[in-house]
Amino acid sequence: MTRHLLKLSDLSAAEAQQIIARAIALKNMRDTSYRPFTGKTLAMIFAKNSTRTRVSFEAGMAKFGGHALFLHSGTTQLGRDEPISDTAKVLSRMVDAIMIRNDSQADQEDLAANSRVPVINGLSELHHPCQLLADMQTWFEHRGNPKGKVAAWIGDGNNVCHSFIEAAVLFDFKLRIATPKGYEADAKIVKAAGAHVEIVHGATFAANGADLIITDTWTSMGQEAETKKRLADFAGYQVDADLMKRAKPDAIFMHCLPAHRGEEVSAEVIDGEQSVIWDEAENRLWAQMALLEFLLGA
Ligand code: CP
Ligand code: NVA
């Protein structure tokens, strides 16, 4: 059966741990002749902007001997209403894997259901699983196994937050979530995580004694018209130096990027000593190559 990664919980805990261990090994490997993807092609469909996701998949495929095809959805026939199921049938006869970034988890599921090759969610309105593979790799590298630790999500209960919730289950840590009213994480995703997730009121309650502090933009792609309202609604949710002081002294700070200094995070924190954002961004490459090895059986 073809495996896909449409959300992090498509993996078992053992598989997720195996992919992270492999990502760390690939990063440390000095063998430049390693070419597991020779002759293989990854099609990347983007309906939204990207820097990290596009470059990490494309550079990773090249590094490991393969090829990545950038397909802006608007300039493919998807932009002229060709059904995504037909697109899946055609692409999967030509390429070895498909990555898609759009704002419809349902369309991604349709794509996967009609594809002979693995489909990877490169971000949807509901999930961002590749980001979490990189984040977990980064947490392991900086502080060891996250099992039993506490992460604090402060800000919007969005796609990245949902994947963090699923990571809490797979990697057995506690995720405390503080969001303003009206920006809560999806109730079904929270419920499925059981005791791994704790919803708290106010950023300081989430940050108290935490091992990891995470946030994301207050205005995700596609929500630009709400920017002004969101800036007002998220007042009190900025991750600043005072909030970081609530966490453990050796706590680290993560952000999937792109970031908005002075909004969801102060410059002092994101550019400060506890921030691991550049490793986190780099790890997109290693974690995704480990994922592709896993999905393609390389
Ligand atoms: N974090 C992330 O997915 O970045 P891009 O939007 O640049 O791909
Ligand atoms: N929540 C953000 C993540 C960007 C990588 C968005 O959806 O725009």
UniProtKB/TrEMBL annotation:
A Pfam family matched in the record: OTCace_N
Binding site residues for L-ornithine: N159, D216, S220, M221
EC code(s) of this entry: 2.1.3.3
Annotated carbamoyl phosphate binding sites: S50, T51, R52, T53, Q77, R101, H128, P129, C130, Q131, C256, L257, R284
Pathway: Amino-acid biosynthesis; L-arginine biosynthesis; L-arginine from L-ornithine and carbamoyl phosphate: step 1/3
Biological process according to GO: citrulline biosynthetic process; L-arginine biosynthetic process via ornithine
Domain Aspartate/ornithine carbamoyltransferase Asp/Orn-binding: 148-294
Domain named Aspartate/ornithine carbamoyltransferase carbamoyl-P binding: residues: 3-139
Family: Belongs to the aspartate/ornithine carbamoyltransferase superfamily. OTCase family.
Protein's name in the database: Ornithine carbamoyltransferase
The species this protein was found in: Stenotrophobium rhamnosiphilum
